[in-house]
Amino acid sequence: MANSMINTEPLKLTKDDFTSDQEPRWCPGCGDYSILAQMKKVLPELGIPKEKFVFVSGIGCSSRFPYYMDTYGFHSIHGRAAVLASGVKTANPDLKVFVITGDGDALSIGGNHFIHLCRRNIDITMVLFNNRIYGLTKGQYSPTSEKGKKTKSSPWGTLEAPFNPVQMAMASGASFVGRTIDRDPKHLADMLKRAAEHKGTAFVEVYQNCNIFNDGAFAQYTEQETKGDHVLQMEEGQPFIFGKNKDKVLNWNGDHFEISAFTAEKKPENPARHNPRSGNAAMEFLLSSLTYDDQFPTPFGVFRQLEQDTFEDLLVRQIEFVKQRKGPGDLNKLLQSGDSWMVE
Predict the structure, then answer these.
(1) Is the pTM of this model over 0.85?
(2) Is 126 inside a domain boundary?
(3) Are 307 and 175 in contact (CB under 8 A)?
(4) Which tens digit of pLDDT belongs to each residue from 223-258?
(5) Residue 5 forms part of a structural domain
(6) DSSP 273
(7) Predicted pLDDT at 206
(8) Pairing mode, if any, of strands 96-102 and 72-75?
(9) Neighbours of 2 (CB within 10 A)
(10) Residue 33's domain spans which residues?
(11) What pLDDT is recorded for position 2?
(12) How far apart are CA 55 and CA 66, in angstroms?
């Protein structure tokens, strides 16, 4: 009788199930609110039990994120979120692990750990909030601030070329790399979901407006009068069409990209088509290099999506192989085995 009353229906989660009892503490109008809202919308769609989610962050405005998610989480130390997350995922591969970080946290003090997370292809989803400024410490320039940027720490303008996070992720070996923006919630949600569903290191750069210290940094991508000519929405299998009236196309002439007119009467004979699954690193890099080139639109969408073995799967297989060769091992025997080396 009791068994017949057991509910075998899958648990239907909603965004409310992922909303913590903590009030978000970001400046009114901050782009972080949009990312938080879309993340809570996406998680119930993944079909993963709530207790399997873990959010790990470092230090920065973005790193408050785990407090506002009703999941397991770590608010770790500056630049080390990738390390903590790697340990969590390696210790328990069944967990769904996210790293929430910022352009300073991930690319300055955390740059080394960011690189190694990508190269190992650990099944972790990293979301980088890029506002091109240090917001938490009140407006210094960051690793992604454009050259010549005048800030409190660069009153005469920065002298450094900025990092391109998308290029860094691809060069380091991430198997999924994408870019989106806070003020396009539909695209943002789609990118977060696709990254979360990918098996391997998935990196998503989110252009995120800091309306206090760097307001309008991405206005050309969000304002109606400008975004058509500045945003290239990459769609798999489709030509690189853009423009306010969808009247321009980005094409590859065998040497470099060029912009051509695109109309029903005037179409390129063999237009370049987007293929993030091709493994063509050269084309991926060329597309990402348009980021700081004012002559071309900035690409948004998925740059790379490859299927590769993950670190934790390889590790589990290696452990099983060693057990078969040498037995399960005895930790107590190892600890009591005496000195392993001697200095005479």
Answers:
(1) yes
(2) yes
(3) yes
(4) 999 999 999 999 999 999 999 999 999 988 888 899
(5) no
(6) B
(7) 98
(8) unpaired
(9) 5
(10) 10-217
(11) 47
(12) 6
> CB-based burial of residue 112 (10 Å sphere; 0-12 exposed, 13-18 middle, 19+ buried)?
exposed
Q: Tokens for 5, please give them.
A: 């009353």
Domain count, the chain: 1
Q: Is 32 domain-assigned?
A: yes
Summarize pLDDT for 143-182 with one digit per residue, the tens.
999 999 999 999 999 999 999 999 999 999 999 999 999 9
Q: How far apart are CA 64 and CA 199, in angstroms?
A: 26
List CB contacts of 45: < 8 A, sequence separation 6 or more: 193
Both tokens of 209, joined, read: 């407006």
Position 117: which residue type? L
Does position 339 have pLDDT exceeding 80, yes or no?
Answer: no
What are 339's two structure tokens? Answer: 């000195």
Output the CA–CA distances (angstroms, integers) from residue 253 to 45, 106, 232, 248, 268, in the order listed: 41, 36, 18, 15, 11
Flag whether 93 is in a domain: yes
- Give Rg (Cα) of the chain: 23
Strands (E) in 139-256, as ranges, are 176-181, 202-207, 231-233, 240-242, 248-252
pLDDT classification of 46: cutoffs 50, 70, 90: very high
Q: DSSP for 183-201?
A: T-HHHHHHHHHHHHHSSS-
- Residue 134 belongs to what H/E stretch? none
Instruction: Give the CATH number of the domain where residue 147 resides.
Output: 3.40.50.970
Sign of CA dihedral 109, 72, 131, 244: positive
pLDDT at 45 over 60: yes
Give the per-residue pLDDT at 298: 97
96-102 vs 124-130, strand pairing mode: parallel
**Three-class SS of residue 142?**
coil
pLDDT tens string 270-303: 788 999 999 999 999 999 999 988 899 999 999 9
pLDDT in tens, 58-93: 999 999 999 999 999 999 999 999 999 999 999 999
**Whether the Cβ atoms of residue 273 and residue 234 lie closer than 8 Å to each other:** no
Strand partners, 260: 249
How far apart are the C-alpha atoms of 206 and 102, rounded to whole Å?
A: 9
